[in-house]
Structures are given as C-alpha cells and as structure tokens.
Specification:
It contains four helices and six strands. The chain has 206 residues and is an alpha+beta fold. The strands form two sheets. A four-stranded mixed β-sheet has the order 1-2-4-3. The chain has a two-stranded antiparallel ribbon with strand order 5-6. The radius of gyration is 37 Å and the shape is elongated.
C-alpha cells in the first residue's frame, strides 16, 4: 500500500500541570528530517522520541512541537541568550568568510529562542504517550492520502490500458482491411490477364 508523506496529528496526555500537547506535521522530503520545538527535552528522552518517529515515519520532513497546558501562573518563558549569541557569531562568520548575508530567521524561529520550562514532575511517560497519540493520527492521515493516490494511479493505468487496447484494435482492423484490398487487386489483376494466360496455354499445346 502506498503511504503519503504528508500528515498531521495532535496528541494530549496527562492532566492539570502535567498535561501536554504534542503536534506533529509531516511534508514530503527525500530523507527523514526532524525538528523538535517547544521546551527542551532530556537528551535521553529526546533520543527516544526521535527513535520512535524514525521507526514509524521513515521519510519526510517532520516538525514536532511540544506545548504545556499548565496554568499561566505556573508557566515560565525563558530566553535562551547563550544560543542567540552563538547563532549571531555563526551568522557573522558566514558573512565574513563567504560573503553570504543571512538573518536569524533563516536558521531558527522565535520558538527556538523562547522556551517554556516544563514542571519538574512532568514524567517522560506522559510525553511519550502524547507523541504516540499524535503519531497515530499522522499515520492514519498518511495512509488515507496514500490510498487516494493509489486509487488515482490505478484509475489512470486503467484509462491508459483502454486507450492502448483501442489503438491495438484499430491497428489490427487496418491491417485486415489493407490485406483485403491487396487480395481484391490481385484478383482483379488475375481476371484481366486470364485471356492472355489461356492463349499462352493453347500455344504451348500446339
């Protein structure tokens, strides 16, 4: 079965201050490219999320966004100053060494610099469960769209086969008609030369 690389899914898990939403978007890409955004995950947990996505999706450009649904009082938005300054330095070096001007938006979005700190009690299992829910929706959409693509291809192949059969039938009919015309001409030619053939036959007998 054909599976599309375009899909969308949203999954939620947990409750209260531990509730999290995970949004996954996928579009066509020759290879598997993943970007995780929202709050920073523990390296081991991030690797597990990436491994889960890689096993299930295999190909495509994958955007994953994590969002906490805790109350405003418990949310804390942080500016990653260190990352910002490093990127500024990288952009500056690119311009000096290669003469290529780039802006910060060419590399990252605002969400990559502004992160929301997760509560300490947020458990990895809650995040993985939300990822699983979102991933299931993505795969359902990709399979549904893949089925539509497959049906369209089969319909086109069927139409093409009908056209090929029609061309073959016309070609065969033309050949038969052409052969019939040749036979008729041969018959007429033989009839027109019959007296001559008879005269030659009689001369040979004398």
């Amino acid at each position: 079965m054909i599976k599309s690389m375009t899909g969308f899914g949203r999954g939620s898990s947990g409750s209260g201050r531990n509730k999290i939403d995970v949004e996954i978007r996928t579009v066509n890409s020759r290879f598997l490219e993943m970007k995780l955004r929202g709050f920073n995950l523990d390296p081991a947990l991030e690797q597990k999320v990436r491994s889960t996505l890689e096993t299930s999706l295999q190909r495509g450009n994958v955007q994953v966004r994590f969002e906490l649904n805790s109350g405003q009082d418990s949310q804390k938005l942080s500016f990653n100053r260190e990352r910002f300054e490093i990127l500024q330095e990288v952009i500056k070096k690119i311009h000096v060494n290669y003469g290529q001007r780039m802006s910060m938006s060419d590399i990252i979005s605002t969400n990559d610099l502004l992160t929301m700190d997760e509560p300490e009690e947020l458990k990895p299992g809650i995040i993985l469960k939300a990822v699983e829910f979102a991933l299931n929706q993505v795969n359902e959409m990709r399979e549904k769209e893949g089925q539509q693509i497959q049906d369209d291809i089969l319909k086109r192949v069927e139409t093409l086969q009908v056209a090929i059969d029609a061309v073959g039938e016309i070609s065969g009919r033309f050949s038969v008609e052409k052969q019939t015309q040749i036979d008729r001409k041969r018959t007429r030619l033989n009839s027109s030369h019959k007296p001559i053939s008879y005269a030659v036959f009689c001369l040979k007998k004398t």
